[in-house]
Design a protein that fits this description.
- This protein has five helices and twelve strands.
- The protein has 228 residues and is α/β, with parallel strands linked by helices.
- The protein has a single domain, classed as 2-Layer Sandwich (BirA Bifunctional Protein, domain 2), CATH 3.30.930.10.
- Strands 1, 2, 6, 7, 8, 9, 10, 11 and 12 form a nine-stranded mixed β-sheet that branches. Strands 4-3-5 form a three-stranded mixed β-sheet, with no helix packed on it.
- The longest helix has 20 residues, at 110-129.
- The two termini are 30 Å apart.
- The relative contact order is 0.22.
């Protein structure tokens, strides 16, 4: 599977480091508007967030299993947002990516876009770590056996995508106990650290995911902008 979305155009990749969730969301909104007006090229944001629970359009507070006091003590917040899906967790050690891509000029199918996004992680895990990951049409995201390693949740405004993926690299998986992730009660969560038995270098992971994304979506590699 390979896309033609980029048509060998350059993809702007911005490494935001660690950023508050609401600040990153506001930045997405700004970039979506700029992309709709043709003022910027397709862009991929890479970021880690402080602990936060995000609630998609289908999210219900009953899926948050701990008290506000527990969340506050951990420095965690709850944000209701416009992506599809239910409750998920973001936090340190998790690579979050926000593709701001214009589907109008290149790729008409949102389903194809999501499939390619999932394929980035299936291919990366196979090529770099010989880990067999797979997608599940019933539960979006990327799975290793019965455990999710990458969550996917997309929003689209005037054919421009935002929100995106959350890849568990060195994530504290105990924080998923705060919620019912994506409303799924019979499956677990895993991370690259757990699967390999050792913490992973986030810079190397960002490089690998960015290169795989660029290749699969058909862009031209121009590197990662680490200035934010």
């Amino acid at each position: 599977m390979k896309g033609t979305l980029g048509r060998n155009h350059p993809l702007t990749i911005r490494d935001l480091g660690s950023m508050d969730y609401r600040a990153a969301l506001n930045l997405q909104h700004t970039l979506v508007a700029q992309r709709q007006r043709g003022e910027i090229s397709d862009t991929l944001l890479l970021v880690e967030h402080p602990p936060v629970i995000t609630m998609g359009k289908s999210g219900v507070m009953e899926h948050v299993l701990v008290s506000p006091e527990v969340l506050s003590a951990a420095g965690a917040t709850v944000e209701r947002i416009e992506r599809g899906g239910e409750a998920t967790y973001h936090g340190p050690g998790q690579l979050v990516g926000y593709p701001i891509l214009d589907l109008r000029a290149h790729l008409r199918s949102l389903k194809t876009f999501v499939n390619l996004l999932e394929e980035v992680f299936v291919r990366y895990l196979d090529q770099e770590f010989s880990i067999a990951a797979h997608r599940d049409d019933e539960h979006r995201g990327v799975w290793v056996n019965n455990e999710k390693i990458t969550a996917v949740g997309i929003a689209v405004q005037q054919r421009v995508t935002f929100h995106g993926f959350a890849f568990n690299v060195n994530t504290d998986l105990s924080h998923f106990d705060w919620i019912i992730p994506c409303g799924i009660t019979d499956r677990g969560q895993t991370s690259l650290e757990r699967l390999t038995g050792t913490p992973q270098d986030m810079s190397s992971v960002k490089e690998g995911i960015s290169r795989t994304f660029t290749e699969l979506f058909g862009y031209r590699w121009t590197g990662i902008n680490s200035t934010g």
